[in-house]
Amino acid sequence: MSGDANADYLSDGITESLIASLTHVPELKVKSRNSVFRYKGKDVDVQKAGNELGVSALVSGRMVPRGDSIEVSAELTDVRDNTEIWGQHYSGRSTEIISLQQQIAGDIAEKLRSKLSTSEKQQVAKQGTRNPEAYELYLKGRYYWNKRTPSDLATAISYFNQAIARDPGYALAYSGLADAYSVLPDFGASPSKNYPKSNAAARKALELDATLARPHAVLGVNESGYDWDFAGGEAEFKKAFELDPNDATDHQWYAEGIGMIGGREQEALAEANRAHQLDPLSPIISEVVGLIHTTARQYDDAIVVCTNVTKENPIFADAHRCLALAYWGKSMYPKVIEEFSAYGQLSGDRNESEFASAMEKGFRLAGWKGALTKGIEIRQAQRKMGYSSPYQIATLYADLGDKDQAVKWLNTAYDERDGRLVGLKTDFRLNRLHSDPRFAELVRKVGLPQ
Hints:
By secondary structure, this protein is mainly α. The protein has helices at 8-22, 33-36, 46-53, 97-112, 118-125, 132-145, 150-166, 171-183, 191-208, 214-225, 230-243, 248-261, 265-278, 283-295, 299-312, 318-329, 333-347, 350-385, 390-400, 403-415, 437-446, and strands spanning 57-66, 69-78, 83-93.
């Protein structure tokens, strides 16, 4: 990288495009963005990085923008003996970025597999658009999508829409929209407003390019978590795996889903471990392993996994949420509050920071019941300012022992299509409700597998 923050999206985008292109090379497994981006901008020992990633060859490169031009240098190194297999310098105008990226991908693929068929070469070189403006807008969208904050996701959606305006046939831009709308509810946005938009974008992407795997995985998440069509969601995931069996994120999402539903814990762990094998350095995949242990009531295992994630990735917020839940399962309440505080601080989410602060204040005043009461107050106040999950409020009331209010808020969650209802049977915070016939009726209405 040149060190120019304004060009970050370009270098990140070229890297991601190369990863996507090289996955089409037969018999080649390519590590994902989550694993390789930890080395971005660092003076890397190629052999050490390759061994950490578990690969036999490593592509490294540098991009320098110069006015209207771009210069890229790329090297392919054999990790086993640290010898350079190939190296090349490329330059071109910024309007030629698509052909530049196609050339780099083609050259690397040729060095890795010298006898590619014509169709395989076409797949490697495929970029989805011939419009350089649309491509650059798409790269900006992906850059902000990867930051995963509410404001950055909104920016990503804007860029994806601009890319589509430049090229209405750009399937990858629709796929980006589907991704962004699908995760927004995890960051406090309304499920009923965003999941239908995600579904529409995913189906449009597949209409334009039926070879894309990711939109099927997005539909798998949405159909299970929003439509509660569990058979339909599973079928979409199977299609995604057929099209691209090596997409770690698809396996991660599938593992998370079946882990929350319950009854298939070993299968969920196997899928999560498959994702981990494909992407061994991804913190979010490791965190999902911890969450699956939590839904299976294996709290100590979850704590071991997610503590390791925090050690290896000190600024990764979600691992602290995983720890908070695991400690909650063990009734270690001071640790719960400590981890929620860390999650709020690292995530930069004001709502989560306010929630952790309220819980801490309540705990000091009146123990765990005080913490739950203050947590309920702040979550309800947040609903007056915007969307806040009714399911989360229900779990607080349930742990407090107020069954009537817990059921009331769970029914609100049902009316609002809160995706967290998929975890009704595995969420330990709802244990006190299991004998209540109103709870059984809600499980029946959601259609959770028996």
